[in-house]
Inverse folding.
């Protein structure tokens, strides 16, 4: 299955993509995670991308699209993938069309996860992540058992640099002006399913799995 997850920052795309990746045994390709990996390894690409990410801006296509093209050409993507955070502009969607055409593959579905902006700000400003194992927490809705420490590995939790309120607002502006129009672009090209993000993760996950016709129970088998 070749899937794209669309939606504003904070709607839970990353979490749903991780679950789908496990249930369907397909790679989860997150451009945000790829950039964070480069940043934590101090690569040139990471240092360049950081300047934009910290301001809530999009990383320029010259950096982003080549990174995605290289990833999609890898062998493990032949049987499918779930793209999370790419494309983020119509320009990137056109570029993706070209890569997929060259690889002679087609998209199966676009899943668009929706959520009110006010709820997004609340979710993102309270989000904390484990820098070691990438587990995600929320200071009110999903606190760790021991304050500030990851339940899985005990590492101190951190707030992502771009989860500060002023940066979140900028990211939402960028989303509405540059990323939301992608839905119109895909309208006549591929099946789009809109799913409202629910406060309870399981509810959103069930909605996503239902839309794909995937048995929710497969998750327990993973
Ligand atoms: P995310 O983890 O998907 O919220 O991405 C974090 C940040 O990485 C975004 O706010 C952008 O600055 C950058 N980023 C991720 N994906 C892209 C993309 N497809 N194009 C440009 N910038 C991106």
């Amino acid at each position: 299955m070749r899937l794209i997850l669309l939606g504003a920052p904070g709607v839970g795309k990353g979490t749903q993509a991780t679950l789908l990746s496990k249930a369907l045994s397909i790679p989860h390709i997150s451009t945000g995670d790829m950039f964070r990996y480069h940043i934590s390894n101090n690569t040139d690409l990471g240092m360049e991308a950081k300047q934009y990410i910290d301001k809530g801006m999009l990383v320029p296509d010259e950096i982003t699209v080549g990174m995605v093209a290289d990833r999609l050409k890898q062998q493990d993507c032949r049987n499918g993938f779930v793209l999370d955070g790419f494309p983020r502009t119509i320009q990137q969607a056109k570029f993706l069309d070209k890569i997929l055409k060259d690889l002679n593959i087609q998209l199966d579905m676009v899943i668009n996860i929706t959520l009110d902006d006010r709820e997004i700000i609340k979710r993102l400003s309270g989000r904390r992540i484990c820098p070691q194992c990438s587990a995600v927490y929320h200071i009110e809705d999903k606190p760790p058992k021991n304050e500030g420490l990851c339940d899985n590995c005990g590492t101190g939790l951190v707030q992502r640099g771009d989860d500060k309120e002023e940066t979140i607002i900028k990211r939402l502006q960028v989303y509405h002006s540059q990323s939301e129009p992608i839905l119109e672009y895909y309208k006549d090209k591929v099946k789009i399913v809109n799913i409202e993000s629910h406060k309870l993760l399981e509810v959103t996950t069930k909605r996503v799995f239902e839309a794909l016709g995937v048995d929710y129970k497969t998750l327990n088998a993973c």
